Amino acid sequence: MSHGRSDCRIYVGNLPPDIRTKDIQDLFYKFGKVTFVDLKNRRGPPFAFVEFEDHRDADDAVHARDGYDYDGYRLRVEFPRGGGPGGFRGGRGGGGDRGRSSRGPPARRSQFRVLVTGLPPSGSWQDLKDHMREAGDVCFADAFKDGSGVVEFLRYEDMKYAIKKLDDSRFRSHEGEVSYIRVKEDRGGSDRRSGGRSRSRSYSPRRRGSPTYSPVKRSYSRSRSRS
After folding, report:
1. Paired residues of 13 in beta bridges
2. For residues 177 and 103, is the Cβ–Cβ distance under 8 A?
3. pTM of the predicted model, to two decimals?
4. Per-residue pLDDT tens digits for 19-47
5. Torsion on CA atoms 220, 221, 225, 227, rounded to nearest 10
């Protein structure tokens, strides 16, 4: 099977303002031969495209560096929309499903869901997912134009921890906007916002050995008994 350049190219966002090309090379050289770094830092928040010689190195870099804390900035590392293995990471804008490949794993949903309000205008699903990772494993995140969002966790305990620790927490978007968000359990069901206009959405790949939860029928009494 042949692989194009798009399979070897990754997007790197939420970089510090003083980032240099050499710094980016140092971040990714361990994953394989980097053939090109295109740093965009003249206008607006800096971001970069990094191209590897081998598509497998690009895949390793995405999995290892997405969410990585670099000098106080949590990096966003992903394949550009429509590129990379599977293409299941979603786009950075409202592009729908056009350009996505069907090779990726199916979307995973969970009943352990929280509703987030107070997001800044530039807050994206990637920003929200990164922020909520402090509480545990996030399998789905979505952000809406009204400043709200939903986040789903793999485990009930992580959802409860997010409500306890991240409610009224300081949220920073990839464009530097800051707000204090509210986090509460979403009891409205997974389809409550299906008609709303989202900024984009995040699907995480299934983890080996992880249990599967139904996104429709809830049973909190059974969930509380899980260890």
Report:
1. 76
2. no
3. 0.43
4. 999 999 999 998 899 999 999 888 778 89
5. 0
